[in-house]
Input
Amino acid sequence: MKKRLIVLSIDAMIEEDLKYLQELPHFRRILDDASVVKKMYSTYPTLTHSIHTSILTGCYPGHHGVINNELFMPGVPKAPWYEESSLCKAKTLPEEAKAYGYRTAYIYWPVTLHADVPWVLHRAFIHTPVENAEQNVEERSTPGLYKRLQKVLAPTWKMPHYEGGDMFCALATEALIREDQPDIIYIHMVMIDGLRHANGVYSPKIKQGFEFLDGCVAHILSALDDTGLYDQTIFCITSDHGQIDISRSVSLNRFFADHGLCEIDEKGNLLSWKAYAHSCALSAQVYIKDHDLEVCRQVWELLNENRELLGIGDLLTAEEMRERYHSWGDFDFMVETDGDTAFGYDLTCPLVVKTDNTDYRTSVASHGHMPEKGPQPCFIVRNPFTHRHVVLENGRVIDQAPTLARMLDFRMTECDGKPMEELL
Output
């Protein structure tokens, strides 16, 4: 009997949500026959595209290279996101699994654009106008795949944004199971993340969101039951990060401009920079042009002297980031929130503003903070090939890929994580 794997990521799902899932029939069906890790230590910064790449590779951000959601492009307020699969520098589980005959499908999974797998349905680019989203998905997916599923997926375009996106994932997964039966499927659903950003970490709307997602899971389980694949499928429900409620946003680049470290014109365009902060929402990567040592010293002193004003809870050098969090890139410092502050990107706004929901980085709840802080993501895995069901208090995001690979009877060759032996 060939083993199969489904990995369903529910963005921003946390340990505290487990009690909601037990109340819902389709989630409960999985949980009643599953092992659970309550708290998964994530990677830093706790951002969606970076962590999902760690889930896929078993590697820290420094190794796989996806160190932010957006690419570093000073002066561009809505920079392109890490999307292309080629930006991941580490081997993924599906790449390793291909050698053992496994065929993979990605459905809205981050950093998988143009991935070398048989099926890719890629999420519309984050800044795509709503009216262009369907065309964008078609253009960014495996040629001909969206057209083949268009009739099934058509109703989702008439639904509200988050509901439509997650139901798209569910219906696409159902159709692929019924028609193509991929061996491995990675799915990314984002409603819970959106609800938390807009309403707060523990808003009553979170439970309503899980009720909707339970209906999405029903479509996937129905396809597995009807094809006889349920008891051949390892079903994993995972997450990337928690969130923290905040009240204000600080523009570090406005602060740098006020101190002569960024030059802007009368229209607010960036002309030149000596120091620039790349927002990670509740943290920020600070780049020093050409790693100038004198500017580094000046910026370090300015940030330390103004910690309270800027909402800085911690300030780390690049060396400390590498040692403590295995995250590195071309940045020089990492600025961490005080627990109530997000770091925006606008060069011309007031230095300190109240949070709003115009951008995920500065919404009423957000993430990007150190992974040991706040509510923690959890990990659920139903493995029909073992009778062992355990509940663990703690695990690591980087251990997911090597654990799932072992469940599929092969080993990851290049990852930082290790199999969670208790789950095997």
The longest helix spans residues 205-226. The radius of gyration is 21 Å.
